[in-house]
Write a structure and sequence with these properties.
A five-stranded mixed sheet has the order 8-5-9-11-12. Helix content is 42%, strand content 22%. The longest helix is centred in the last third of the chain and has 19 residues. The chain is globular. α3 crosses α12 and α3 runs antiparallel to α13. The relative contact order is 0.18. It is built from 13 helices and twelve strands. The protein is an alpha/beta fold.
Length: 304
């Protein structure tokens, strides 16, 4: 009997050790976030929001793990991976308007949108990347009609394409992200609108174009463009927990504080700059999201 107890006591001690190889990791809800490696500032912020929301729900939903998957995938491949819900099960992207019943069915099969905007209206502020030789031409643009006579370049499948078309802007949307800049230099279109928080990082990534391309300093486009988390439809419990946590963070003000922590300097620079801002409509944004008016720039800076 003594020899049996001598064997059992060490085993009991191992089981009692908190966090031992254990069942905590096994029972944790695992969020496998797709980071496409192109927009680090935005992805860092979105992962911080994800952590904030999951901490808010730790007492009700238990432990969690966030696995940040850095993978350079096309959006179609990433969406397929999200739909499968194994290697990836969550990403953040702009709200996609559901124009047809087929659109709705495809989204229901692929992912569950958590309809709480993550970035206010910041993603909808678009700076223009242009050829340096065209600076004088762009500096003389004082109304939207002149810009509409030129052609914007966008990535294949981007939500923004339908927004430009709705507002009667000319747009080409047949490029992959990595070929946009070479196509601009080749004259396939005249400018590339990218989010104000993405544009400088994009040019830094493609240094070979820095002598030929530039960010237009004093003209910007704006349209409501809420960024949402999209969770694999295979994992509704992950979506439910995330929505509960984001709701708490929005109600107690911690979501706003996190936004200020990450972007207050950038927003202040925008407010203090003398910008020409052309405002576009985005008919795919529900009015209840509160993004139907520009939120970051004063009215006097908004040019119809």
């Amino acid at each position: 009997m003594k020899s049996l107890l001598a064997l059992l006591i060490p085993l009991m001690a191992i089981v009692a050790v908190p966090g031992y190889a254990n069942d905590r990791d096994k029972d944790a809800m695992v969020y496998r976030y797709w980071d496409w490696g192109i927009t680090p500032q935005r992805d860092d912020y979105q992962v911080a929001i994800l952590k904030l929301a999951l901490e808010k729900t730790r007492s009700t939903h238990g432990d969690y793990k966030i696995e940040r998957k850095l993978e350079t995938l096309s959006r179609s491949r990433a969406h397929r991976a999200i739909a499968q819900g194994e290697f990836l099960n969550i990403h953040a992207s702009p709200l996609r308007p559901l124009l047809t019943e087929q659109d709705r069915r495809e989204q229901m099969e692929e992912s569950i949108p958590v309809k709480i905007p993550l970035m206010k209206s910041l993603l909808g502020y678009r700076s223009l990347i242009i050829r340096r030789r065209d600076y004088e031409q762009f500096s003389e643009i004082t109304d939207a009609a002149k810009l509409k006579s030129l052609v914007a370049g966008q990535g294949r499948g981007w939500t923004d394409i339908s927004i430009y078309e709705h507002n009667k802007y000319q747009v080409r949307g047949d490029a992959e992200y990595f070929t946009l800049f070479s196509m601009l230099l080749a004259g396939r279109f005249d400018y590339i609108p990218l989010s104000v928080i993405e544009v400088n990082g994009a040019l830094s990534r493609f240094e070979q174009y820095s002598d030929s391309l530039m960010v237009l300093p004093d003209l910007m486009l704006y349209y409501p463009l809420p960024t949402l988390f999209h969770v694999s439809a295979k994992h509704p419990a992950l979506a439910d927990r995330l929505e509960r946590g984001l709701t708490q963070a929005r109600q107690d003000g911690s979501l706003d504080r996190l936004f200020e922590q990450h972007f207050s300097e950038q927003v202040q620079q925008m407010k203090s700059a003398k910008l020409r801002v052309f405002v576009l409509e985005n008919p795919g944004v529900p009015t209840e999201m509160g993004l139907d008016q520009p939120l970051l720039l004063s009215p006097k800076q908004n040019t119809p």
